[in-house]
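Quick start: what a row looks like.
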Amino acid sequence: MPRKSAQRSIQAVIFDLDNTLYDFLGAKDQAIRAAIDAMIDTGLPLTPEQARERIDRIYRDKGIEYQKVFDAFLHEVLGEIDDRMLAAAVVGYRRSRDGTLVLYPHVLPTLTRLQKEGYRLAVLSDAPRYEAWIRLCMLRLHHVFDLVLTFDDTGIRKPSPAGFRLALKRLGLEPRQAVMVGDWPERDIVGAKRAGIHTVYARYGDAPGPDRPSPQAGSGADFEIDDLLQLLDVLNRLNAGEGGEGG
């Protein structure tokens, strides 16, 4: 039997969004491929490989959330923005994204279980506010969380502890009462530890992308999981007073 909410050590779970609750990089990869194919169909004078290399370079320079990537790409390749080609890219990207945005296995039942057990649930993301809410709505998670904080709310990105501290303040909790679950050790885990929050590394979501390195050995987290369902055991251990691998 889980302890009653008021008697537990842990009162809230804070989640990263992308690559922690769903495969952001997988969906992004497929959407970019669809956008490139659409531009080539409308006359783009590059191979898919040449186009992808240039787009990835823009993401590395501007960040994976850069919203004008196709504008910048077309201006670089053509010397101007061809509206027909841009529209084809955007439509191709959105259609693919909408069809490939799916939760990781066991995410929904885990979140449902946490809700039933009385945990406060939050999201802390470096994504722009509008984009984060689009993803949450598409994943049908927009009613699940007690708090959603994005870059537009915090004004600073991880690993700064500022966003984590703001989440704690909004939830009315002390650091020891919260757990952070994230897939990017250098950002999610480091930032949460700086704020004094228990940390769980979502190993299943850590993969290289256009603006992030290959996964490194040793996350530094208190706990590591290969499936979000394992978070339930982590919480039971923390509530029983047990530490973790990194703590």
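That is the whole record. The beta strands are 12-15, 120-124, 147-149, 178-182, 198-202, 223-225. The chain has a mean pLDDT of 92.
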